[in-house]
Amino acid sequence: MSLRIDKITTGRFGNKILQYNSLIQIANKYNTEASCCNFNEAKYFKNIIDNKPIPKAKKKELLFCKNIIDGEILDFENKYYNIDDPACLIHNTFFQVTNKDPREFLELKEEYKPKFNNDYYHVGIHLRGGDIIKKDGNDGREIHEFNYYKDSINYVIEKFKDKKIIFYICTDDKNFESYLETINYLKKNNLEFKLGNINSYIHDFGILSECDILINSSSTFCLCAGFLGKKDKFIIHSKNWINKNINHTKWNNNENGKILDYSIIEFRHTFDNFWINISKGENKFYKVNIII
């Protein structure tokens, strides 16, 4: 029958793109119709599928992330599935669903792509800030320390020393300590850099998606920039962050209850496992080149 998003996730930009990727990937695998509600971020992309509501007579069934992770065979002959929250088909199911290059159906419109000088090698640096420090930021679990950014910058300079390099610093929090230290380090070492636009996330996303190299954070925002836009990017991630996931470091003290068929702990581990898989560099659409 079909697969549908009736209401886009309440998560931020990256989660919306990942939910939409799941929609198209699953529909493509099963050769079934996909439809999606209108959502604000769709305006930035070419050829987002039309909003084709399912006839009310058809009964919908929620397709939960556990169904995908467990490899359940879906019955599109007799059912239509819905992947609204709390289905959670975002990065925790990325490796299970992504068999088609997302660039084929998620391409930024031309006005949101940067006009880069081809004489340079362009390096995007993403720093998360306020959203991982405030009350719901899991006690700062996802903070990437300045040393990660410093070591990554030094690695890039040494590995690509035959290139003219320019860095782009993208963040949503210009008071974030790692951001301030990174800026000072670039200035101190007379390295060429430009700042993103804190008032326009799509401006920063366009930059990151077209860079040659990404020094990434834990954010799904820069994750999506990694598998969209320019192909064959050189992607760097934090060893400290990957190890937190390998060790299943606690998110916070709220560990009771369930999310549908998962306990809270099992549910969180699905996201930890995504980052563990990232570290193995086995996905052709998002391949990490080095962990620092």
Description:
By secondary structure, this protein is of the alpha/beta class. 33% of the residues lie in helices and 16% in strands. It contains nine helices and 14 strands. It has a six-stranded parallel sheet with strand order 9-8-7-10-11-14, sandwiched between helices. It has a four-stranded parallel sheet with strand order 2-1-5-4, covered by helices on one side. A two-stranded antiparallel sheet has the order 3-6. Helix 1 packs across helix 7 and helix 4 packs parallel to helix 5. The chain is globular and about 65 Å long. The termini are far apart.
Question: How do you describe this structure in short?
Answer:
The chain has 9 helices and 14 strands.
Tally the helices.
9
Structural class: alpha/beta
What's the order of the H and E elements?
Answer: EHEEEHEHEEHEHEHEHEHEEHE
Gap between N and C termini, in Å? 46 Å
Q: Major sheet: order of its strands?
A: 9-8-7-10-11-14
Low-confidence stretches: none
The helix content is 25-40%
Write down the Rg.
Answer: 19 Å
Largest sheet: 6 strands, parallel
Question: What is the β-strand count?
Answer: 14
How much strand? 15-25%
Shape: globular
Instruction: Summarize model confidence as the mean pLDDT.
Output: 92
Key terms for this structure?
alpha/beta, 6-stranded parallel beta sheet, 14 strands
Provide the fold topology:
Blueprint: E1 2-5, H1 13-30, E2 33-36, E3 45-46, E4 60-62, H2 65-69, E5 80-82, H3 94-97, E6 107-108, E7 121-127, H4 146-159, E8 165-171, H5 177-188, E9 193-195, H6 201-210, E10 213-215, H7 220-227, E11 234-237, H8 239-246, E12 258-259, E13 262-263, H9 264-280, E14 290-291
Parallel strand pairs: 1-2, 1-5, 4-5, 7-8, 7-10, 8-9, 10-11, 11-14
Antiparallel strand pairs: 3-6, 12-13
